[in-house]
Amino acid sequence: MDDDLDIEDFSEIPEIEIPESSATNTPNEFPTPSQSINIPSSSNNVNNNNNNNSSGSGSFNGGNFTLNNNSTPKTGSKLGDTLSQSLSNFSSLFSSGSVSKTASGKDIKEKEKEKEKEKESSEEVKEKDSPSISSSAIITPLPIKKFNEQSRPTTVLRRAIDAHSDQVNCVAYHLYGNLLATASSDSFVKLWSPFSSDSVPTALSSGAPTLPTISTISRKLEGPHSSVLSVAFSITNNLVCAGTGENSAFVWETEKGKLLDKLTGHNAKVSCVLFPDERSLASGSHDRTLKHFDLGTGYATQTIFCGTKVNHICHGSQAETVCSAHFDKTVRQYDLRSGSLIMQITPHSNEVTSVALAPDSTSLLTNSKDNTLKLIDLRKAGSVLRTFQYPTYRNTFSPNVACFSWDAKYVAAGSSDGQIFIWNALTGK
Predict the structure, then answer these.
(1) What is the three-class DSSP state of 116?
(2) How many angstroms separate the CA atoms of 100 and 370, rounded?
(3) 283 and 290 in contact (C-beta within 8 Å)?
């Protein structure tokens, strides 16, 4: 300030009473000469019983304080103290220049709040424009998005194929995607090419092909006279087999669709089939047995009595072994050469509908009518690593086959209400 205020200069000025409710600490600066000030009315005074309170205004001119209107100030307090209290209430008003209107206590508080908001907003703009962040800045974490059923992404249907005249019970892709096989209750197995050519590729692809754009029928495999329940490719893509409701399994070669053999020996429908290698075939049946067939002779070299219906089988963790899902809630692993039981666990509280070996052969995925999927560790006596479930997931039929994604990061299963559920294999969510 250029001029220092001297209390002695105001000794002849009548004392002015300022409402005590608006008194605060001593201000940081005083008004300059020629600045005008407003003295609020005492309507908000703590002493509401005093009816002689009045309001007025005054100005500093050359260091002298002059009242601009006729007012009758109360006496009994020093002007220096009351002026300090008054200036503390109006310091924010003085900073913007002269004030020509008398302000009430409420108006002052509202304007002070507006000033604070403007100051905060200007500071925020400066922080945004500044390339660096101060050490005192508070970093607010991004909100975590909760799962919303309605916001889930939808898949795009590439093409729907009118493939069979009855329900489709099973589909199987070859390892490299060259062929797609479908099995139906219309007693047919059909091979589909995902490419534009009608011919079936005979050589393995050097790598995984792109997503299919056109699906054309390549072969219609005949032979069964009842429902075809399961289908599987051999590792080299040269053979395809199917389990049927007429208690037998059929084997075709894929290039020309020629029927190579009809394997008999089961006393009930063959629910599942797979190729342990190019020379043999394993089958599971509701007659409570597993059979290992020699494709060279067409006879079963091993029959394993399980004591319960076999719903599904998959490759085991070792060569010439299979894992099986059973009606009695058990999951087992057998040696096909000796017929011996390697492992048996009961991870579910209801019938097990499918088993699937992980790509690294260390774990097994199971699906059950207890409406859960479980990840089983084959290295640690079949201990349960993880459980997958969801409130609306339902498994009411067998076989209901769950599977891994190609990179084993996800697991998927179809629900009885037509939905497909996909879980994160690492977190179980």
Answers:
(1) helix
(2) 81
(3) yes
Written as six digits, the tokens of 425 are 């294999």
Helix (H) or strand (E) holding 299: strand 299-305
What does the alpha-carbon distance between residue 27 and residue 372 come to, in Å, rounded to a whole number?
Answer: 71
Expressed in percent and rounded to 5, the helix, strand and coil fractions of the chain are: 15, 35, 55
Report whether 269 contacts 286 (CB < 8 A): yes
Measure CA 66 to chain center. 73
Strand stretches in 62-194, DSSP E: 64-67, 168-173, 180-184, 189-193
C-alpha to C-alpha distances, 352 to 230, 347, 368, 413, nearest whole angstrom: 17, 9, 4, 13
Q: Are 161 and 215 a contacting pair, CB within 8 Å?
A: yes
Q: Is the pTM for the entire model greater than 0.70?
A: no
Structure tokens at 63: 């260091």
Q: How far is CA 78 from CA 50, 82, 85, in A?
A: 19, 6, 11
Indicate whether 6 pLDDT > 70: no
C-alpha 250/C-alpha 362 separation (Å) is 31
CA 242 and chain centroid, separation: 38
Could you read off the pLDDT of 51-75 as tens digits, one per residue?
Answer: 444 444 454 444 444 444 444 444 4
